[in-house]
Design brief:
Number of helices: 9
GO molecular function: ATP binding; phosphorelay sensor kinase activity
Number of domains: 3
Catalytic activity: ATP + protein L-histidine = ADP + protein N-phospho-L-histidine
Strand content: 5-15%
CATH superfamily of the largest domain: Histidine kinase-like ATPase, C-terminal domain
Subcellular location: Cell membrane
Oligomer: single chain
Keywords: ATP-binding, Cell membrane, Kinase, Membrane, Nucleotide-binding, Phosphoprotein, Transferase, Transmembrane, Transmembrane helix, Two-component regulatory system
Distance between the termini: 49 Å
Number of strands: 9
Protein name: histidine kinase
Structural class: alpha+beta
CATH class of the largest domain: Alpha Beta
């Protein structure tokens, strides 16, 4: 029985429907023949009851051309009782009517059985899933174990639910990220705006009494903070545009990429000792968005060069379908708090006091790596180590 169920679970609904209809036709024919023969049997019992009497008492025999011919002078049904006549009429009618009746009954029964066994459960599952999605509730699963058309439809519904859930989670993550971004933006703007406001009030009140040197110094302070605000706004604009970047992977050899990384490292780390090591063969084929890899690499190098004492080291590797860039420096490394928060926007490390940097390098690198199907990992090993992974 289990094997039959498994066999039917892998058949299409069209095939199963054909089997049901064939079973319906065979069943209807068998029942029709059985009931029709039963009606005829009842009629024959009634006729046989009076057949002998009828043949003996109401027959005239003539000889015609040497043959005996029997003529019955009275109808056999005249011997039937009123009940037997009605029964004989009913059996005559039902022996014919039983065919359409049986077919109608079997078709209706087969349709109900087919609906309950093949359609009712998956339709209920899909109706429930549609209702849950309409209510914006995606915390459920669409499970239907058959492999027919409705099973495939349920599987497609489950894929759609998973995609919607992931999309919603990503949307909420982006919303939360934007909230943190706006909070950080507002917080960091407060200081330069306060300075500008104070300096402008100072000029308004005391400009006529201030010396040219004092006015020039105040103007210089204001100009420096205005430039910082412009840079800050530009950084925010760049961050917004990161969401619209499309990843375009193209084939490139490890040798060509290594040369580009080497050149970039020598330029960015001009005042530090720079070394770059490749852990795979130079003929290794890669498939990455070189512009994205370079942008992330430049951000990581700039961070490493700022915190390094003397040396910045880079390691390039490729395995398991990923390209790995590991950038390390010989600085003090990440504090425990930094390891958790350094990739957040506008975050500055515990030891950092430079107001010219906005703490966006690692955050931009994280966003670009994730868009490339990879990630960023922070660790310490005789200094800070940042590993960027890009899915090929």
């Amino acid at each position: 029985m289990g094997k039959i169920k498994n066999l039917f679970s892998k058949r299409s609904i069209k095939t199963i429907f054909i089997w049901y209809m064939l079973g319906c036709i065979v069943t209807a024919l068998l029942f029709s023949l059985l009931l029709s023969n039963t009606c005829q049997f009842v009629q024959s019992r009634i006729y046989n009851k009076y057949q002998i009497i009828y043949e003996e008492t109401h027959k005239e025999i003539e000889v015609e051309k040497g043959h005996l011919i029997a003529y019955y002078t009275r109808d056999l049904r005249s011997y039937f009782t009123p009940f037997e006549q009605r029964l004989d009429d009913a059996m005559s009618f039902f022996s014919i009517a039983v065919y359409p009746i049986c077919f109608i009954f079997c078709i209706v029964g087969t349709s109900v059985l087919f609906y309950r066994r093949q359609l009712q459960t998956p339709l209920a599952i899909l109706d429930h899933a549609a209702g849950q999605i309409a209510d914006n509730n995606l915390d459920f699963k669409v499970v239907y174990n058959k492999e027919d058309e409705l099973g495939k439809l349920c599987a497609s519904f489950e894929k759609m639910r998973v995609a919607l859930q992931e999309s919603n989670e990503e949307m909420w993550r982006q919303m939360e990220e934007r909230k943190r971004l706006n909070t950080a933006f507002s917080h960091d703007l407060r200081t330069p705006l306060t300075v500008l406001k104070g300096q402008s009030e100072l000029l308004q009140q005391y400009a006529p009494k201030m010396s040219a040197e004092k006015v020039s110094g105040t103007s210089e302070i204001m100009h420096r903070h205005i430039v910082r605000l412009e840079s800050y706004v530009q950084t925010m604009s760049d961050l917004q545009r990161l969401e619209d970047i499309e990843i375009i992977r193209k084939p490139i050899s490890m040798e060509m990429l290594y040369e580009q990384l080497q050149e970039t490292g020598e330029v960015v780390c001009i005042d530090k000792m720079f070394s770059c090591e490749c852990k795979v063969g130079m003929d290794t084929a890669l498939c990455v968005d070189t512009a994205i890899v370079q942008r992330v690499f430049e951000n990581l190098l700039a961070n490493a060069a700022r915190f390094a004492k003397e040396r910045v080291s880079v390691s390039v590797d490729s395995s398991d379908g990923y390209l790995y860039l590991m950038v390390s420096d010989d600085g003090t490394g990440f504090a425990e708090k930094d390891l958790e928060n350094a990739t957040k926007p506008f975050y500055k490390t515990v030891s950092e006091t430079d107001n010219e940097h906005f703490g966006m390098g690692l955050n931009i690198g994280k966003i670009l790596c994730e868009k490339h199907g990879g990630y960023i990992r922070l660790s310490n090993r005789n200094g800070a180590v940042v590993t960027a992974a890009f899915r090929q």
